Amino acid sequence: MRYRLAFRNVDADPSDPVETWPHEGFCAAIERGFLPDWSKIAREVRANPYGAAAATLSEVLDYIDPSPAAELLGGILSKARSEADAADRAEIAREIAGIVAGSGLSQAEVARRLGTSRTRLSTWVNGRVTPNAATLARIRRAFPAEAAG
């Protein structure tokens, strides 16, 4: 007989998309599920680290009893979010580098126009530091043609 995860007292089915599972569904999968169930959660979390399933998993992990499955899924969530954050920072760095290159100005002149130092601009261009949202908006307004790509 093949094992199949079942949700009890929940208006959802394990065959439904993971992002539609309620908290109780995640609890059941973590506590009573097996590798295929955990893999289904992991795939969705990797695909969308800040989506509905990832948010629900994060909440469930805050109160569920520790277990190897919970630890595994928590690690997958943490890694997926770290990778997504790194990709976002790299995207911002590429955008700023493109703005600087497209401006035809030196980094020192671009920095002066932005009201910052060349050193600070360099950290944004190489991705060591990501500017805050207000600074990024200021960069885009100062160099709109370059920001548009």
Annotation keywords:
single chain; 149 residues; mainly alpha; 434 Repressor (Amino-terminal Domain); 2 domains; 8 helices; 0% strand; elongated
Briefly say what this structure is.
By secondary structure, this protein is mostly helical. 68% of the residues lie in helices and 0% in strands. The chain has eight helices and no strands.
What does this structure look like?
With 149 residues, the protein is mainly α. It folds into 2 domains: 18-65; 86-148, lambda repressor-like DNA-binding domains (434 Repressor (Amino-terminal Domain)), CATH 1.10.260. It is built from 8 helices and no strands. The protein has helices at 23-32, 35-47, 52-63, 68-103, 107-114, 118-125, 133-142, 144-148. Helix 2 (35-47) runs parallel beside helix 4 and helix 3 crosses helix 4. It is elongated, with a radius of gyration of 22 Å. The termini are far apart. The model has no long low-confidence stretch (mean pLDDT 93).
SSE inventory with pairings:
Elements: H1 23-32, H2 35-47, H3 52-63, H4 68-103, H5 107-114, H6 118-125, H7 133-142, H8 144-148
Task: From the alpha carbons, calculate the radius of gyration and give it in angstroms.
Answer: 22 Å
Oligomer type: single chain
**SSE pattern:** HHHHHHHH
Low-confidence stretches: none
Number of strands: 0
User: How would you characterize the largest beta sheet?
Assistant: none
CATH topology of the largest domain, what is it called? 434 Repressor (Amino-terminal Domain)
The CATH class designation of the largest domain is Mainly Alpha
The whole-number mean of residue pLDDT values reads 93
Proportion of helical residues: 55-70%
Structural class: mainly alpha
